[in-house]
Specification:
It catalyses: 7,8-dihydroneopterin 3'-triphosphate + H2O = 6-carboxy-5,6,7,8-tetrahydropterin + triphosphate + acetaldehyde + 2 H(+). Its EC number is 4.1.2.50. Its cofactor is Zn(2+). It is a single chain. The protein is of the alpha/beta class and 200 residues long. The protein is 28% helix and 26% strand. It contains seven helices and nine strands. It has a seven-stranded mixed beta sheet, with helices on both faces. A two-stranded parallel sheet has the order 5-9. Helix 2 runs antiparallel to helix 4.
Length: 200
């Protein structure tokens, strides 16, 4: 069984080394729509793959980091990176290019890591990310699967290789969200009182 949750954000970037002259030389932005698709082979006590309400906490916060922020590849020109940090309170440093393809990989990676570190409280057993679709425009999107995240030929992803501005962190429900993710701190879902006893 699979479920889909839609997230939206506005983001700016330069995509270095791409074929388009405009995209590789000029800051530009997109209205992104992100489809996060989760799957499980059994349902929780509420007979859901994963309660949509639970996606409004850490996973929503980490995706919302992109909103009204500028993203840059950590290998870009140091002067450009310094200018991004100086003139934008909201920025994210990525170990890969800020393309739609990499956005789909990064969001898949973050969401999967959060789920791995989450203490489930309502009978969820094997919830995982099935796919992430990053709609960059009304006509173009990139779709990522687990094999793409693991494929180092597409760029290695490691939690320690990302950086967020102070303003981005301050706007999370927990400003220590990413630091806790790196340290392996457990995220604990709310406990649930059974109103109807599920089948054994």
């Amino acid at each position: 069984m699979r479920i889909r949750k839609l997230f939206k954000f506005e983001n700016a970037h330069i995509v270095r080394n791409c074929s388009s002259e405009r995209c590789k030389h000029s800051i530009h932005g997109h209205s992104y729509q992100i489809e996060l698709i989760l799957e499980a082979k059994r349902l929780d006590h509420g007979q859901m793959v994963y309660d949509f309400g639970l996606l409004k906490s850490s996973i929503k916060d980490i995706i919302d980091s992109f909103d009204h922020a500028i993203c840059f590849w950590s290998k870009d020109d140091p002067e450009y990176i310094a200018a991004c940090k100086k003139f934008s309170a909201r920025w994210i440093s990525l170990p890969v290019s800020p393309s739609a393809e990499q956005f789909s990989r990064v969001i898949f990676f973050w969401a999967q890591e959060i789920l791995k570190q989450t203490q489930m409280q309502n009978g969820e057993t094997d919830v995982s990310v099935y796919s992430v679709i990053a709609h960059e425009t009304a006509t173009g999107y990139a779709q990522c699967f687990a094999d793409d995240v693991a494929n180092e030929q597409m760029g290695k992803l490691a939690l320690e290789e990302f950086a967020f501005s102070e303003q981005v962190c301050a706007e999370w429900h927990d400003p220590e969200l990413y630091a806790k993710l790196i340290r392996g701190v457990r995220f604990v879902n709310p406990s649930v009182t059974m109103q109807v006893q599920p089948d054994a």
